[in-house]
TrEMBL record:
The keyword Phosphoprotein does not apply. InterPro entries: HAD-like_sf, HAD-SF_hydro_IIA, HAD-SF_hydro_IIA_hyp3, HAD_sf. It comes from the Bacteria. One of its GO terms (molecular function) is phosphatase activity. NCBIfam families: HAD-SF-IIA (TIGR01460), HAD-SF-IIA-hyp4 (TIGR01459). Coiled coil: none annotated. Pfam families: Hydrolase_6 (PF13344), Hydrolase_like (PF13242). One of its GO terms (cellular component) is cytoplasm. Gene3D superfamilies: HAD superfamily/HAD-like (3.40.50.1000). This is TIGR01459 family HAD-type hydrolase. The keyword Transcription regulation does not apply.
Amino acid sequence: MIDTDWAFHRYESVRAVLPEAEFAQQSRAGHSLADTVEDFDAYILDAFGVLNRGETAIAGAVERMADLRAAGKRLVVLTNAASYTRQAVLAKYHRLGFDFSASEVVSSRDVAFAALPQLAGGKVWAAAAAEGDDFNDADDAARIEHLAEHPELLHSAGGFLLLSSARWSQSDTEALTQALLARPRPLVVANPDLVAPREEGLSFEPGLVAHDVTERTGQKAAFFGKPFGNAFDTALARLKDVPRPRIAMVGDTLHTDVLGGASAGIGTILITDHGLFRGHDVAPYISLSGIQPDWIVATT
């Protein structure tokens, strides 16, 4: 069963693969991001658990973004939702009422796709992807096909690309494991999340598949997205005129958002009421992991 305790301990079990970071000695507490505005000039925002839960905007989040803009704060969304093109992500946010521009959105999909031509070796990538994804935002040099529609790619593909778990099952994990044991090939993970908060609960995500496979095969994966530096480098490039201590990563998880932000040398804010820790006292998880955010607030 995927729940908060299970997800937390699974994140802890892969801690050696995650970036290292130094954390605050203690956290300041507040109700919302409004309480943090004296400390920061810019916010890098997670999506799930901060702006939305599944396909639903978090109550008050649209208004909070407007308030932050009115206060002169800079905003960048950094999402691990690799199922969507950047245009589709932007359309989703606009549908939910947010006014982010294309330059304010960084997707782990974009970060991964930028690396694919160097990793491809001229062969086809077999992708775990959402139905209907046409990969039209990938570099022309990156040839990508759906693994779900072409299972023979388990044997012939030059590498594997994990974008979405929407059409993935345990039997797919087993098949990929056996394929890599038979012939090791690159494994690129464009969504390092283990779980994501949705309306009905926590869903399993590509990062979970990747760690299950790599632990069974001994093969390393290339991760793109939070908490890894490649995603933060891309997001911080949008804020290069803002001193890093005046930038905060806002998220709902300790092991992706807070750890990643701290590793990047920026401030960190954990939101507790809408994502992974909804309905839980976060203090024991912070104590067990040692991942201490600069701020803990209830809501966006």
